[in-house]
Every structure is written in C-alpha cells, then in structure tokens.
Write a structure and sequence with these properties.
The chain has 179 residues and is of the alpha+beta class. The protein has a single domain, classed as Gcn5-related N-acetyltransferase (GNAT) (Aminopeptidase), CATH 3.40.630.30. Strands 1, 2, 3, 4, 5, 6, 7, 8 and 9 form a nine-stranded mixed sheet that branches. A hairpin with a 2-residue loop joins strand 2 and strand 3. It is globular. Bound molecules: coenzyme A. The site of coenzyme A has 15 residues, from strand 4, helix 2 and helix 3.
C-alpha cells in the first residue's frame, strides 16, 4: 500500500539521496533548477510517497510566473526509488500533486521532462512563446492547463516567484532573537 503525504523534515536526506540516484550531480545544472534554487516549494506541494514504512518517492512543485499567463507552478523533480518503479508510485505522486494544485486554485503546471511519461497526465508541449532562464529541449518543455485556456498563447519568460528559503544564518538569528 503506497501512501502519499506532505514531505516532513526527516524526509529531506532520503529525498536528496533519491534525487542523486535518479539524476546524479547534473541535476543542479538543469535550467529548471534556476527556478528552484534558493526558493521554498509551493505551499502543501512538497510530497513524499511511502511504501512499507520507507520513503520511496518525491515530487515538489514551485511557484512561478509565466510571462503573459501570470502565476502558475513548475513541477519537479519527480523520482521513485529504483527498486520500487513500475508499481504506480510515480503516477500516485503526480495525481495527488495535480489534484492538490487544482484544489488550491492553481491554473497551470509547467515542467521539463520526458513527454512520453507525462502525456498520460495530460501534459502537452508548452506554448512556443514561453521561455525558460536557460537552454531547454523544447520537446521536453511541457505544460498542463488545470483551467482550460490558462496558458493559451502565453509568451514571455518564466520566473521564480516562490518564497525565499531561509538561510541557516537567518534561522539562527531568528532563534537568538526569540530566546
Ligand atoms: C519516471 C518515474 C518517476 C516513474 O515512476 P514509477 O513509479 O515507475 O511510475 P509508474 O509506476 O506510475 O508508471 C510506470 C510506467 O511509466 C513508464 N515510464 C517510466 N519512466 C518513463 C519515461 N522516462 N518515459 C516514458 N515512460 C516511462 C513505464 O514504462 C511504465 O509504463 P506502463 O504503465 O506502460 O507499464 C521513475 O521511473 C523515476 O524515478 N525515474 C528516474 C527519474 C526520472 O526520470 N524522473 C522523471 C522523468 S523526467
């Protein structure tokens, strides 16, 4: 039985190990990483999948603004433990993420990934007028309209709009001031 729930602090090291195993160090060079670095994921949209007591999958979504289309989400990275693939865990994470995003009133989701995998969830090529802050294979730049027409013929740059991550120093200062 697979359970998808909010990511908790104890998941972070497992999540990072999962992502290293799935994508390697090159993951930090990806163009979509430019929209994630230094930011916090969108509220209630950092998810972990658990199977037989172990955390085995992760997906997070991020607040962005996509040119003329305005506010939306960027999805990724999505990864499932290699030994647990093909059990529907990735699909369960995707469905929960998209369901939550819709329920929270988000209008569209962008991602850079394998079109043959994401097509099953309704993802199609992103509008040609949208740009990412770095090189991208257009065949892998995908979009899903939660509200039909939310992207339309959108054009312009996709930029990060999520809350900034708190630095360790900032957290330490806050704790000192609160003491
Ligand atoms: C992609 C990934 C998250 C799928 O997780 P999963 O739990 O195995 O997915 P599901 O069990 O829900 O779906 C399995 C199906 O997806 C297909 N699939 C898996 N990866 C695929 C890919 N990259 N392209 C196309 N199809 C893919 C499988 O062949 C299988 O097909 P079937 O349903 O016809 O048998 C997992 O394979 C993974 O972590 N891969 C490495 C990281 C990665 O590539 N992440 C995202 C893609 S950019």
């Amino acid at each position: 039985m697979v359970k998808v729930r909010d990511e908790i602090a104890a998941d972070v090291s497992v999540r990072e190990a999962l992502l290293d195993a799935a994508f390697g160090e090159a993951r930090f060079e990806k163009t979509s990483e430019r929209l994630r670095e230094g930011r916090r994921p969108a509220a209630k949209l950092a998810l972990s999948a658990c199977h037989e007591g172990a955390m085995v999958g992760t997906v997070r979504l991020w607040n962005v603004a996509a040119g003329t289309a305005g506010d939306g989400l960027l999805l990724g990275p999505l990864a499932v433990d290699e030994d647990r693939r093909g059990l529907g865990i990735g699909s369960k994470l995707m469905r929960e993420a998209l369901w939550r995003a819709a329920r929270m009133g988000h209008r569209f989701v962008l991602l850079v990934g394998d079109a043959p995998y994401y097509a099953r969830f309704g993802f199609e090529p992103a509008p040609i007028g949208l740009d990412l802050p770095g090189p991208v294979d257009r065949a892998r730049f995908l979009a899903f309209e939660i509200i039909p027409g939310a992207l339309g013929h959108a054009c312009g740059m996709v930029v990060a709009t999520g809350a900034m991550e708190r630095s360790r120093r900032g957290v330490a200062t806050e704790q000192r001031l609160a003491a």
